[in-house]
Automatic annotation (TrEMBL):
ABC transporter domain ranges (all copies): 4-246
A Pfam family hit: NIL
Organism per entry: Microbacterium mitrae
Signal peptide start-end: none
PANTHER family named among the record's database cross-references: AMINO ACID IMPORT ATP-BINDING PROTEIN, METHIONINE IMPORT ATP-BINDING PROTEIN METN
GO molecular-function terms, A-Z: ATP binding; ATP hydrolysis activity
Keyword field: Amino-acid transport, ATP-binding, Cell membrane, Membrane, Nucleotide-binding, Translocase, Transport
Swiss-Prot/TrEMBL GO biological process terms: amino acid transport
Physiological role: Part of the ABC transporter FtsEX involved in cellular division. Has ATPase activity.
Presence of the UniProt keyword Transmembrane in the record: no
Family statement drawn from the similarity comment of this UniProt entry: Belongs to the ABC transporter superfamily.
SMART domains reported in the protein's UniProt record: AAA, NIL
UniProt name for this protein: Methionine ABC transporter ATP-binding protein
Lineage of the organism: Bacteria, Bacillati, Actinomycetota, Actinomycetes, Micrococcales
GO cellular component: plasma membrane
C-alpha cells in the first residue's frame, strides 16, 4: 500500500527576471512510495530532488497535481491542517540543523515539547532514542562537542521523536566521511527494519542508494526519467542519466576509445561478459575458459552487489586460437551475455 503518492505533480517558481519564463523545478512527477520502503531519489545537482522533498512534507505547495500522504490529500489542506500531517513526517538534513545552544537531550526533546508531551513522557522517550542511536552518554553534551556522525545521530533521534511514519533524509550523509557514512546508513536500516518507518532518501551518491534503498527514482531536469527496484534500475539502466550514475561505481562495456587503449596494452581478444545475480556465473566463465585451454586476464570492469545480488561487467583479454575461442564463447553465451569487442570492429 502506498504511503506517499504523487500524481502529475509540478512545482514552478516565478521568472527570475521580468518577462522571463518561470522556473520548473519539478515537472509532472508521478510516484508511489510503498509503506515500509526505503525509497531513493537520485539525481545530479539541480535535478529537483530537494524540491520534491519539500513538496512531500508540504513545506512548499505544488503548482499542479496531487500529493497524498498516509491517505490524506495534502494539496487540499490549509496550513493549520498541514501541521498535523507534518508531525507524522520526520526529516534529517545534510548540515544536521541542531540547536547549538541546546544540549543533545534538549535538541531531541524539542519536537516533543512542541507537540505538548508531558515532562515525564519526554524524558522517557529521549532516553529510549539516545539508547537506540548509541548516544546514551551524550545527553548533556552540546553539538560543538560532537563529531559529524554523532550530530547526525542526534538529528535522526530528533526526527524520530514523535514516532513518525515517514522519514525524509535530504543528502543526510554528504557531509560525512566514508566510515561515518556507513555507520549512519546502518542506523537508518535499523530505523526501517526495527521501527517500520518508511524512508525517503534524497542523494546524488550511488553508494548510498545501493547500500540502503529498496527502490529508486532517477531525476533529471525536474522529471523522473526511470524508477523501479534498485537492482533492476542499476543492473540494467535504460536512460543515459541512469547509465552515467551506474558508471560512477561500476564500469560497463568499454567504449571504442577505451577498447583501443586496452588493445594497445594487452595481447589477446577482448571480450566483455555481463553478469546479473550470481557470483557462480562468473566462476563458471573462468572455469570454461580454463577448461578449453585458453589463457586470459581481467583488463577492465568490475562486479557490484546490491543486497546480496551481484551484477557487473568483466572484460577479459583471451589468448588462444580463434576457433577455440569462438566455440567457448558460444557455450558461455548460452547463459551469460557476451560482447566480443573484436566482432564489433572496435579494434
Amino acid at each position: 500500500m502506498a504511503i506517499v503518492t504523487l500524481t502529475n505533480v509540478s512545482r514552478h517558481y516565478p521568472a527570475p527576471t521580468p518577462g522571463g519564463d518561470s522556473v520548473v523545478a519539478v515537472d509532472n512527477v508521478t510516484l508511489d512510495i510503498e509503506k515500509g520502503d526505503v525509497f531513493g531519489i537520485i539525481g545530479y545537482s539541480g535535478a529537483g530532488k530537494s524540491t520534491l522533498v519539500r513538496l512531500i512534507n508540504a513545506l512548499e505547495p505544488a503548482s499542479s497535481g496531487t500529493i497524498t500522504v498516509d491517505g490524506v490529500d495534502i494539496t487540499a489542506l490549509k496550513e493549520r491542517e498541514l501541521r498535523g500531517v507534518r508531525r507524522g513526517i520526520g526529516m534529517i538534513f545534510q548540515q544536521f540543523n541542531l540547536f547549538a545552544g541546546k544540549s543533545v537531550h534538549a535538541n531531541i526533546a524539542y519536537p516533543l515539547k512542541l507537540a505538548g508531551w508531558s515532562k515525564a513522557d519526554i524524558a522517557q522517550r529521549v532516553t529510549e532514542l539516545l539508547a537506540f542511536v548509541g548516544l546514551s552518554d551524550k545527553a548533556k553534551a552540546y553539538p560543538e562537542q560532537l563529531s559529524g556522525g554523532q550530530k547526525q545521530r542526534v538529528g535522526i533521534a530528533r526526527a524520530l521523536a514523535t514516532r513518525p511514519a515517514i522519514l525524509l533524509a535530504d543528502e543526510a550523509t554528504s557531509a560525512l566521511d566514508p566510515q561515518t557514512t556507513h555507520e549512519v546508513l546502518e542506523l537508518l536500516k535499523r530505523v526501517n527494519e526495527e521501527q517500520g518507518v518508511t524512508i525517503v532518501v534524497i542523494t546524488h551518491e550511488m553508494d548510498v542508494i545501493q547500500t540502503l534503498a529498496t527502490k529508486v527514482a532517477v531525476m533529471e531536469h525536474g522529471r523522473v526519467i526511470e524508477q523501479g527496484p534498485v537492482f533492476e534500475v542499476f543492473s540494467a539502466p535504460k536512460h543515459p542519466a541512469s547509465q552515467r550514475f551506474v558508471g560512477t561505481v561500476i564500469k560497463g562495456v568499454p567504449s571504442p576509445a577505451e577498447t583501443a587503449a586496452l588493445a594497445a596494452r594487452h595481447t589477446g581478444r577482448l571480450v566483455t561478459f555481463s553478469f546479473r545475480d550470481g557470483d557462480a556465473a562468473q566462476a563458471r566463465v573462468f572455469l570454461d575458459l580454463a577448461a578449453a585451454g585458453l589463457d586470459f586476464e581481467l583488463v577492465y570492469g568490475g562486479i557490484n552487489d546490491i543486497r546480496g545480488r551481484a551484477f557487473g561487467n568483466l572484460t577479459l583479454a583471451i589468448r588462444g586460437d580463434d576457433a577455440t575461442i569462438d566455440r567457448t564463447l558460444a557455450v558461455i553465451g548460452e547463459r551469460t551475455s557476451v560482447t566480443d569487442l573484436d566482432e564489433q570492429g572496435a579494434r
